[in-house]
């Protein structure tokens, strides 16, 4: 099928290439579950997703019919015709992901951080400007910085975060300034 997001739009492309493809695979092979890496904090539409996200026999999701997930207890009983989308990282934040990478000393593919990012320096902090919600103060200029600015140390400006400018050059040591505050997913 010759479809792409630039010609047909991203919503249609995603529906045909991802959503419909997944439904076809679930129907063809009779899988009970499909695992995904989506997190609730990524976008508003994912905020109501559960770790075990049940779908009816037509693969429809109804947020009102989802089961409670209290104290990390999950009811995995699948009714006839149902399937589950399982999102084990659903309750993790972006910071949890980066803390896990740091704690486990997982290498990051250099290409991941290769892109330039628009940043703003304010009060000695660098903030990524990833949309038009930030109001520039007099004299502030958005600059492009190279990929040495990882998400672990660079929070989006609209979240009120930032990193000390001194730590932005990629010389951020494992033993200084970055402390694990909680177990990823804790407090869910």
Automatic annotation (TrEMBL):
Its EC number(s): 2.7.7.4
Lineage: superkingdom: Bacteria
Keyword tRNA-binding: no
Sequence ranges assigned to domain Phosphoadenosine phosphosulphate reductase in this UniProt record: 3-114
Gene Ontology MF annotations: sulfate adenylyltransferase (ATP) activity
Pfam families with a match to the protein in the record: PAPS_reduct (PF01507)
Coiled coil: none
Keywords tagged on the record: Nucleotidyltransferase, Transferase
Entries under InterPro entries matching the protein: PAPS_reduct_dom, Rossmann-like_a/b/a_fold, Sulfate_adenylyltrnsfr_sub2
PANTHER family named among the record's database cross-references: SULFATE ADENYLYLTRANSFERASE SUBUNIT 2 (PTHR43196:SF1)
Name of the protein: Sulfate adenylyltransferase subunit 2 1
Annotated source species: Salmonella enterica subsp. arizonae
């Amino acid at each position: 099928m010759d479809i792409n997001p630039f010609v047909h739009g991203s919503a249609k492309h995603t529906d045909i290439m991802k959503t419909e493809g997944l439904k076809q695979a679930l129907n063809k092979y009779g899988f009970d579950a499909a695992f995904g890496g989506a997190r609730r904090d990524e976008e508003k539409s994912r905020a109501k997703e559960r770790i075990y996200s049940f779908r009816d026999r037509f693969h429809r999701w109804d947020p009102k019919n989802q089961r409670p997930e209290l104290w990390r207890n999950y009811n995995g009983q699948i009714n006839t015709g149902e399937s589950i989308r399982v999102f084990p990282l659903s309750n993790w934040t972006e910071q949890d992901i980066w803390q896990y990478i740091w704690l486990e000393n997982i290498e990051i593919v250099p290409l991941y951080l290769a892109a330039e990012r628009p940043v703003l320096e304010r009060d000695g902090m660098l903030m990524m400007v990833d949309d038009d919600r930030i109001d520039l103060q007099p004299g502030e200029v958005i600059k492009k910085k190279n990929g040495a600015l990882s998400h672990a140390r660079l929070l989006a400006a609209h979240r009120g975060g930032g990193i000390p400018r001194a730590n932005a050059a990629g010389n951020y040591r494992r033993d200084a300034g970055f402390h694990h505050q909680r177990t990823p997913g804790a407090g869910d």
